[in-house]
UniProtKB/TrEMBL annotation:
InterPro entries: Acyl_CoA_acyltransferase (IPR016181), GNAT_dom (IPR000182), MSMEG_0567_GNAT (IPR024035). Residues 16-170 form the N-acetyltransferase domain. This is N-acetyltransferase domain-containing protein. One of its GO terms (molecular function) is acyltransferase activity, transferring groups other than amino-acyl groups. It comes from Methylobacterium symbioticum.
Length: 181
């Protein structure tokens, strides 16, 4: 009998959608802690803030045999209460092992902006870490200003809503596929 080494399981497609199930929301929070506290050290122990009380969490789910398996990416969106139509995205994070593999960052940004667009967004903004500005520019965002946040250089950026058609069913979301190796 010949025994072949087993390759680690690599999901081929991912669903990006609003995080509605409690386990999805818990996993989004855990991934944020992993990326923004442990990896980047921007916060100590916990990155939650007052915005979480009103923000909508979005998740990227890996799939196993067609079923949702794990949260491998997240972002949150919220509308500014005092300025109707102004929406913000924040805490964009993809698990390290999945970065650059399946356009998860781009998919999360797509669901974030397009779902806000469907909810009456007229201006979508984010504070983007300087190293990620080229990614956002490639995805039709413009830099409006520069500033330092949490001790790191950021750009205030705005999405071109024309590139983000309204998404009416973000609970269903979209699917991204692993790039060919
Ligand atoms: C930034 C981040 C979310 C991107 O996620 P990702 O899933 O790797 O991004 P994608 O695969 O969707 O990238 C889309 C495209 O942008 C490119 N890209 C990704 N990150 C980039 C960067 N920092 N600068 C320039 N291009 C970048 C990719 O190569 C890809 O190009 P392609 O489609 O031509 O191959 C991820 O790197 C991350 O979680 N980083 C740590 C946390 C962080 O920095 N959060 C953002 C705060 S603003």
């Amino acid at each position: 009998m010949i025994l072949e080494p087993v390759q680690p399981f690599r999901p081929s497609h991912f669903r990006v959608k609003f995080a509605v199930a409690p386990w999805e929301r818990r996993a989004c929070a855990a991934l944020r802690r992993q990326v923004f506290c442990t990896e980047q050290g921007l916060f100590v122990e916990d990155d939650r803030d007052a915005i979480d009380a009103q923000a909508i969490p979005i998740c990227a789910l890996s799939t196993l045999a067609g079923d949702a398996d794990a949260v491998v990416g997240t972002v949150r969106i919220h509308e500014v209460a005092e300025r109707r139509g102004e929406w913000w995205g924040s805490r964009l994070a993809v698990a390290r092992a999945f970065r650059g593999t399946a356009a998860l960052g781009a998919g999360l940004i797509q669901v974030a902006v397009s779902s806000a667009h469907a909810r009456g967004c007229t201006r979508f903004l984010a504070h983007v870490q300087e190293r990620n500005v080229p990614l956002f520019q490639a995805l039709h965002w413009a830099s409006l200003d520069t500033l330092v946040l949490h001790g790191h250089p950021h750009h205030l950026m705005q999405a071109d809503l024309a590139a983000y058609p309204p998404m009416d069913d973000p609970e269903h979301g979209l699917v991204t596929f692993r790039r060919a190796a």
